[in-house]
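Dear support,

I submitted the protein below through the web form. The confirmation email said the job was done, but the results page showed an empty box. After a refresh the structure appeared. I'm attaching both so you can tell me whether what I see now is the final result or a partial one.
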Amino acid sequence: MLDTSRRTAFDDQHNQFRDTVRRFFAAEAVPNLERWQTQGVIDKAFWRQCGEAGLLCPTAPEAYGGLGLDFGYNAIVGEEHAYIGCNSGITLQSDIVLDYILAYGSEEQKQAYVPRMITGELIVAIAMTEPGAGSDLQGIRTTARQDGNHYVINGSKTYITNGQNGDLIIVVAKTDPTQGAKGISLFLVDADTPGFARGRNLDKIGQHDADTSELFFQDARVPASAMLGQEGRGFYYLMGQLPQERLSIAVSAQAGAQRAFDLAVEFTRERKAFGKTVLDFQNTKFVLADLSAKLQAGWAHIDWCLNRHYRKELTATEASAAKLLHTELQWECCDKSLQLHGGAGYMNEYPIARLWRDARVTRIFGGTSEIMKEVVGRAV
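What the results page shows now:
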């Protein structure tokens, strides 16, 4: 259980909400984790349960059926979600996708989609990455050609979270391939659009419960009203949402790091070797002491980021630094905690094995650690 008694980013109302979230996940998520891992996708019913419990899109305005809360409520869901080792796409929906629609969508689009996102009736994915374009979004090849009052989309996407469950896809496409970043636009594509097809639910190293998919667009015809925002502004929109996206990843990574550490303490306290517990060995104490110090600093930094984000002061550079710092810490905690489990850590029946596998991708998605260093380095 996460210790939030000394946190500085949350008030009493936040803490009451956390109790609700924690109880909900204990009842509705934890008993299903292994089954979701086996089937490779989260039940759609779980999304609707999250909606009924008020866990989806907490920041959505009341005008669309939301609660109009601050991002701290999102962070609480993200922390508790990551701590139990669940990899559903609910944080993508609440922390990333929602703000694209609220910030750039027409009133008609907001009314059509946001209320159902809040209830979990509508699951949304965002399709950026392609087989030949990852962090460099200017290199995408998917096109959207205008044809009268419609656009015709052609191309393919890969590694798309919520790809199998998604009812609505935000598609990044080039409306003018000659203009580079200025030729990129965003489109809202319903999953029943002719010409849209889902590919494989991809076989990943970890996060087996997350439906991560290939998506294909072959002459997928959408009305001009499906464009999200203005033509040619897509790259600008993507860059504008980076602080919250990368903060969201950092928050989850920190909670995952804490869970790995807690598992290591629990295991070494019980495991015996050479007549004493593994925790009694100096090396174990030193490893755990080092991780404990880093986690202490990490939580203080997360709260600093959250408080800045509440005031809309968190910069893209600061968020990129947070994403770099906390995902690297997550990997260190998971790897060293697995080592302290010895042979047991390599067995899938122990939670640390799953946490270790799942943590490997966080230094890649949302911008690799190498790209984060580039971003931060430019500001030095």
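Response: this is the final, complete result; the empty box was a page-load delay. The first helix runs from residue 12 to 28.
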